[in-house]
Amino acid sequence: MEPAKIKAVMPVAGLGTRFLPATKATPKEMLPVVDKPAIQYVVEEAVAAGIRDVLMIIGRNKNAIANHFDSVPELEEKLTAKGDDSKLGRVRKSSDLADVHLLRQGEPKGLGHAVYRAKQHVGDSPFAVMLGDDLIDERDPLLPKMIEVNEQKKAMVVALMEVEPENISLYGCASVEKTDDPDVVKVVDLVEKPAQEDAPSNLAIIGRYLLTPEIFDVLERTEPGKGNEIQLTDALKDVATDDNNVDVYGVIFRGRRYDTGDKLDYIKAIMRLAADREDLGPELRPWFKEFAATL
């Protein structure tokens, strides 16, 4: 399967209640991470992996997302008249990045339901599910490895990351078997947010999935789970534990990941990314040291 034929599905229908009142009228995916909204980083990641067809599953009051990836002729004309080619290029980049499609989720029934809504759009091909809360540093690409494993194994693939055992209760957790590749494991079971003493490993599912169309039949029969929502983890557990023709593998990600779904981690993400930038880092890093010395 060529990456160009793989589509990306990005569920962005969440209410972002942890960031109220900032998200009262602004989608959480549009909150800036330095000078780009979080969702743009995710689209750029998909494009870097060769994926240009992006379906966003949206909820109410998400018009700002659609507007961001659309062209803004009046703004472009003003920047052109000023000769500000740098800003013009940044404005145009978001509208030229990918073919962005929008589909309303309707009644919010969970991540599994949002993914199921993509059935007609993705058709019979494998597709990536990319959650906007997780930003993967562009210097540590993850999707290409997941696409490679999908091609080799003809399987569904989840992204896994080692976390501290006391934090595993915040994630879906994978029970795994080793393979010949130290960064690839076979997933034999999944547990949604287990207590530390009940967790089969410290491998947590993070917000990247490479799924095959078989997931839709499973999601259709998946009953609501935690939070009375249809959980994608529950559907993947059924695939991993059922005796069928589709397996689930995990790619262990050891790179830089930024969680923008939590206020503290969101602030850390901005600081880390800004500190690494050539235009901001040289002045920002010394200031960090000065500021830290005052604490």
Keywords:
alpha/beta; 9-stranded mixed beta sheet; Spore Coat Polysaccharide Biosynthesis Protein SpsA, Chain A; 295 residues; two-stranded antiparallel sheet; 2 domains
User: What integer value in Å does the Rg equal?
Assistant: 20 Å
The domain count comes to: 2
| Count of individual beta strands | 13
Please provide the ordered H/E string of secondary-structure elements: EEEHEHHHEHHEEHEEEEHHEEHH
Supply the number of helical segments.
Answer: 11
Tertiary shape: globular
Low-confidence stretches: none
In CATH, the homologous superfamily of the largest domain goes by the name Spore Coat Polysaccharide Biosynthesis Protein SpsA, Chain A
Termini, distance in Å? 53 Å
| Level-1 CATH class name of the largest domain | Alpha Beta
Strand content: 15-25%
The CATH topology of the largest domain is Spore Coat Polysaccharide Biosynthesis Protein SpsA, Chain A
Strand order of the largest sheet: 5-4-1-6-11-8-12-10-9
User: Helix amount, in percent?
Assistant: 25-40%
Mean pLDDT level: 89
Care to describe what's here?
The protein is α/β, with parallel strands linked by helices and 295 residues long. It folds into 2 domains: 3-261, Alpha-Beta Complex (Spore Coat Polysaccharide Biosynthesis Protein SpsA, Chain A); 262-295, no CATH class. The protein is built from 11 helices and 13 strands. The strands form 3 sheets. It has a 9-stranded mixed beta sheet with strand order 5-4-1-6-11-8-12-10-9. Strands 2-3 form a two-stranded antiparallel sheet. It has a two-stranded antiparallel ribbon with strand order 7-13. Helix 3 (73-82) packs antiparallel against helix 4 (85-96). It is globular. This is UTP--glucose-1-phosphate uridylyltransferase. Its EC number is 2.7.7.9.
